[in-house]
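In response to reviewer comment 3 from the previous cycle, which asked for concrete evidence that the modeling workflow produces usable outputs, we include below a single protein chain processed end to end. The sequence was submitted unchanged, and the resulting structure tokens are shown without manual editing.
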Amino acid sequence: MNAQELKAYRIKLFSDVYSGIIPERVPVWDCLTTEYMVQYAGLDLMATQYNYTADLLIEIYEKAREICRGDMPAGGFAHNAAALMFQQSQVMQMGKTGFVQHPERTFMHEDEYDEFIKNPHEFILEKCYPRMYRGYAKGEVHRALNFAKYILATMDSNLAFTVAETTMAERYGLFRRPDGSVGMQLVPFDFIADFYRGFSKIPLDMRRRPEKLLAAMEAIMPYAIWMGRPRVKSHLGCNMIMTHMGAFLNNKDFEKFYWPTFHQVVHIAAEQGQATQIFLEGDWTRFLDYLQDLPQGTQLWMEYGDPQKFKDKLGKKMVLGGFYPMTLLGRAGKQECIDKAKELLDILAPGGNFIFILDKWALNINDIKPENYVAVLEYVVENGKYENAGELVTTARKEDSIHKFSHLYPEFKSKYVQSFDEFKLEYPPVDERVEPLMREAYEKYTALVI
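The workflow returned the following structure tokens.
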């Protein structure tokens, strides 16, 4: 097949899976980060991250084609070192090895919950951001200038990655989700724990001020709903969730603190016409009964757990992936790696609703042996074919699985987020012909900075 035929074929693979139809074969994801591919290309990771251009990324991706065998472009998200520099970020910081990491820090104090609850968005911008980003803590002028530099650096980087990824997708016939159809879905508990209270302080809050924590999660819900609105609705798109704290909680705390708002944001995304792709960090096997209540078609990517139990309980309702231990590819022989792929294919592929993806992405050049990685992906591509392609995974209706929660929450409001209709009262169009153009520009650039 030529590139366009391959692209159409791969689009159909994912379209079928995301539509509840058994595809011609199991779709396969490459699980190589941009950081891994930079190292594979023999480049200095630290220096390269400050100078991503479309041409350089295409060169890096082309080198990685030696080992890529998946149906989507490898790489995707990468940290923007220049943008972090202008922010003087304390949230994500580059270490001496060149890798950007999230250090354990607290940016909201225990006595500030009431301020947070009053209006989380305004509190975060006014109180937390200057603590999180020192470039914003030097007065209004410095804050404005540093934010402008951050935005420009982000736009340049995003454009470079978009051009490079699009080029590779067209050149090799790879599947890409439609532009604008992918968003990040905020989960209240993880949002507060990850960025504001920290992993070390949130357990204390659950014991010492549980009602404040619960109220804070409820207060963040309108913002989470607003942020999760899909710009482009497509069955090929998704809202992404990277869970963190869920698997580290005991069952009682999970049920009380984590699950209620998590459950609601996933269903609200489905209400808004968007499937959710959830990376379940850790082992969620003990929470299988909870996961059964998520909307049909939710995409679950597991790190650890019992794949047979996930298949038995969720295989007809959810799109499953993960479980394959990336570390095996770095330490085992080729046949052992292939045997593990066969084991997971035998468990998870029957009946459809399965995408082959590792349990995590390769980040360091030593994470995987290229020959093992190639052997495993080639095995899945060759042996993941279905004899009953085109059949429905289930006759259940997706709309019957969606619970309605959005009506329980007020519309998101913040003095820092103004609608165009509010804005034009201050700056009215000079002629009715330009009003739609002003609205388009206002909404585009407001979305960019918010």
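Residues 418-450 form one domain. We consider this sufficient to address the reviewer's concern, and the full set will be provided in the supplementary archive.
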